[in-house]
Amino acid sequence: MSLLRPLLLASALAFALSAAAEVREFPSEEGTVRVTTVAEGLEHPWGLAFLPDGRMLVTERPGRLRMVSFDGTVSRPITGVPRVQARGQGGLLDVALHPRFAENGLVYLSFSEPGSGGAGTSVARGRLDGDTLRDVQVIFRQAPKVDTGFHYGSRLVFDREGKLFFSTGDRGMQDTAQDLSRGQGKLFRLNDDGTPAPGLPFAGRSDVHPGVYSYGHRNIQGMALHPSTGRVWTHEHGPRGGDEINVPRPGLNYGWPVISFGKNYTGTTIGEGITAKAGMEQPIHQWTPSIGASGLAFYASDRFKPWQGNAFVGALALTHLERLVLDGERVTDTEVLLDDWNQRIRDVRQGPDGALYVLTDSRDGQVARVELLPR
Length: 375
Fold this sequence. Notes:
Number of helices: 2
Number of domains: 1
Strand order of the largest sheet: 1-2-24-23-22
CATH architecture: 6 Propeller
Largest sheet: 5 strands, antiparallel
CATH superfamily: TolB, C-terminal domain
Strand content: 35-45%
Structural class: mainly beta
């Protein structure tokens, strides 16, 4: 029965989506790529998580959490979601399920939480009960809160040990990414209740923000577990150039804003204009000009064999989906997909049917299904 259920789920999902509203096809190196609209009418959808039965939880940045069914029906907003500060780039951001969701029903949300001093990126969790989140608690807060509308991050990923990785942006205050006492520009590793995970590199130091795993990050908006190694990979926005992919290690400094392949939006150099410095890590891949990277997924299904082992990244600024060919922790080739679709892609996930699913970032955003057709 355990082997049959995923097959039935994938078949049901594929059947239900076959009547979707819009289908477009695009050429690629490995064959024709088909994009099917699954659901639309979502206001700036930001994060997506698949429930065990194949339905999707989708966040909308203004502060709503929706359920999207097999047939593309979008639910009324789920009640119990914490209040967000939907200002600038802030709002309701990512969503993730507890590894034992089938037992405990816990859903995790990252969001811009208003409070004294402005807002900060926080993590809340609650138990999904029908169309309601119950027993909602804020379990982790980026400190201090600041009064800007930029660079909140953030992604949520559970690792194989059941620990939660959580990313934050620098909030437009560049130097905070190098300040270990502040919660901006960091990657955190937490227990499932929001407390710092054991064995962190700065554990016991009173001058370090609780939970810090790595630092020197500008604005991480893509994070995923590598299917073979189980390591967390991240990507983050650069300014004008210098979007980058990292495989963060505990305690290491990823350089922002001391080193960068980009420039300020005004065209001026960042700091001393250097791209490398002793004690600071180099990315495994960088994009100049910036693509506006958002969302990251590794393809680990047998369904589309030419994509096996590849990574997929959404592009907000350049409005495409990018396929990365990997050799270990090296990017050996890239391919631009869906280039003529002209959609800002905010998130990318592999679905239970082996297809990719993307969220488009607009006032009339959509969930779309991406497939590689046989030659």
